[in-house]
Structure formats: structure tokens, C-alpha cells
Design goal:
Elements (H helix, E strand, L loop, with lengths): L2 E5 L9 H11 L3 E4 L7 H10 L3 E6 L2 H6 L1 H11 L3 E4 L11 H20 L3 E5 L14 H6 L6 E5 H6 L4 H8 L3 E6 L1 E2 L11 E2 L8 H10 L4 E4 L7 H13 L2
Parallel strand pairs: 1-2, 1-10, 2-3, 3-4, 4-5, 5-6, 6-7, 7-10
Antiparallel strand pairs: 8-9
Helix pairs in contact: 1-10, 2-4, 4-5, 8-9
């Protein structure tokens, strides 16, 4: 059965969190995805979720937390009842510029994830567009990262795949067995939604959702995380996007 989640990062510009959780619950969401800025008080966050009938089933964690303080990351994930821990990105100054560097990063990421895996969680990488910038000819960083270990999963951000000029359906087929979740994100037509960084509510942009949904189901990817990096109205985005995904 497909489950639908909401990445709370979408609502970072609309405090307080308590109001966001109440809004999401009222719209019919049952699951949310966390991110690093929310984990200062795990017990309080868990109480806020529970009081709204919400579960935080997955979360984004900075590489530094996973690598340097794995017990802290594991404690957050365990307190929330998460099933998977994802590292969402590294800053530009940390990004390798050649294939050897990306391959080494993949091994570093896999090593950092070992305590998380040993604790019973799934562990993986969440892509943006920079992993599709070729190195050493035609090699792609995303492939090099995931070659670091077969235990590395991926939360494939379908919007960023399309922004990078690739077909999400092809990448779903390529890494479907390793997909922990899909980030369901839409892109506005060229020149539109400039005040929202060119993103769109799911189903109101250019993404071919019937084909993408079919591809995800064919690979038994059943966890869909709705996301928009910069909505001007998070209630509108959450409401319209949920309606779209429910109609899949």
C-alpha cells in the first residue's frame, strides 16, 4: 500500500511548527519527514507529532551528525519511530570534482551509515541536481556514490532529476530496488512561479505523474514524500499536492 508523507522542510518559513502539524493533520496527512533543524528536543517533537496523529517515518540528517555523533542520530530516529535515515546533501565546498573523489565519498557515506544500519534502520542518500554533473567524461556522481556499498539506499528526488535534464522514469527503473522513498516534487513551466524558485504544487507543473507513478509501482516503491522547496503558501501546496497524489 502506498503511503504519503510531507517533508516538513517545505514549511520552515511558516512557524510555529505546532501550527504546521495541526494544518497537515487537518488536511489528512498521517506521516511527515523530518530534517535537521527539528531534532533539538526529540521527546517534545514526538509528543507534538503524537498529539496530531502524525508519524515521522523518515528523516533527513546532516552527514556530520551521522558521521560524528551516530548515537545522537540513532536516538532521534528511534524516538520518532523512524524506519529510515537519509543524508540529504553536502555543501558545494565538500563536493568532489572527479570520479575518484565521488567514489571515495560513496565509501565514506557507506561507512558513516554502518551504525545506523546496525541499529535496524535503512540508510541512504537524497539527491539534488549536482549529482548529475558529469565527471571524467561521462561518469555521474550519483552512480559513483551508490557504488560505495550495496547497503546504501536512495531517496530519489524526482524533481531534481528532471531539473538536471534526466528522465525520472529511467532513474526509477535503474535504482528502484534500492529506493527507500521517492520525493514527489513538481516543476513550474519555464518563466512561471519565479517567486517559488520555479517549483510547483504536485500535479500543477510539467512532471508526467501517470508515467512516474506507474514506474514507481512497477519497482514496488510505495513511500511518496511530497515536497516543494519554497512555497509562498504552504497550506495551498500541502492541500493541492495531497489531492494530486491521492488521485494517483
Amino acid at each position: 500500500m502506498t503511503t504519503i508523507s510531507y517533508q516538513l522542510y517545505c514549511s520552515r518559513n511558516f512557524p510555529p511548527l505546532a501550527d504546521t502539524l495541526t494544518m497537515l493533520a487537518g488536511l489528512g496527512y498521517k506521516e511527515v519527514e523530518g530534517y535537521g533543524g527539528l531534532y533539538d528536543d526529540p521527546a517534545r517533537l514526538k509528543d507534538q507529532l503524537t498529539s496530531n496523529g502524525l508519524a515521522m517515518t523518515t528523516g533527513h540528517f546532516g552527514l556530520s551528525m551521522v558521521e560524528d555523533t551516530p548515537a545522537q542520530a540513532i536516538n532521534v530516529a528511534r524516538t520518532m519511530g523512524m524506519k529510515a535515515v537519509m543524508v540529504p546533501a553536502i555543501p558545494p565546498e565538500m563536493r568532489p570534482t572527479d570520479a575518484a573523489g565521488w567514489a571515495a565519498f560513496g565509501k565514506r557515506l557507506a561507512e558513516a551509515g554502518k551504525p545506523v544500519l546496525d541499529a535496524g534502520f535503512r540508510f541512504g542518500w537524497h539527491n539534488h541536481a549536482f549529482e548529475f554533473d558529469t565527471v571524467d567524461g561521462d561518469l555521474l556522481p550519483l552512480d559513483l556514490i551508490l557504488a560505495g556499498s550495496d547497503d546504501l539506499g536512495i531517496e530519489l528526488d524526482l524533481g531534481w532529476v528532471r531539473v538536471a535534464g534526466h528522465d525520472p522514469v529511467e532513474w526509477i527503473a535503474k535504482y528502484g530496488p534500492r529506493m527507500i522513498a521517492a520525493h514527489v516534487k513538481d516543476i513550474a513551466p519555464d518563466g512561471e512561479a519565479t517567486d517559488e524558485d520555479g517549483w510547483a504544487d504536485v500535479g500543477h507543473g510539467i512532471m508526467d505523474w501517470p508515467a512516474i507513478h506507474t514506474a514507481l509501482q512497477a519497482q514496488s516503491v510505495t513511500h511518496y514524500v511530497i515536497e516543494h522547496d519554497n512555497p509562498t503558501d504552504h497550506e495551498r501546496f500541502a492541500r493541492r499536492s495531497l489531492a494530486t497524489v491521492q488521485a494517483f
